[in-house]
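WARN retry 2 of 3 for item q-0093 after timeout on previous attempt; input resubmitted unchanged.
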Amino acid sequence: MHLGNAVTAAGFWLGTLLPVAYFPVFLVGIDSTTSLSILLTLLAVHMVALVIGHDYPGSR
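OK item q-0093 returned
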């Protein structure tokens, strides 16, 4: 497996599984700037993972 394929696979699986990390943030609530920054960071990482993992052959 080449490095590019491994990165694409990691991006795909991270993009697939990362929404599970949203639940604790929503359960605790977004009532502070720390919680908001955690949520925005999760969303940014999720978007990057989706873009990187878009061409993963197992996703079709």
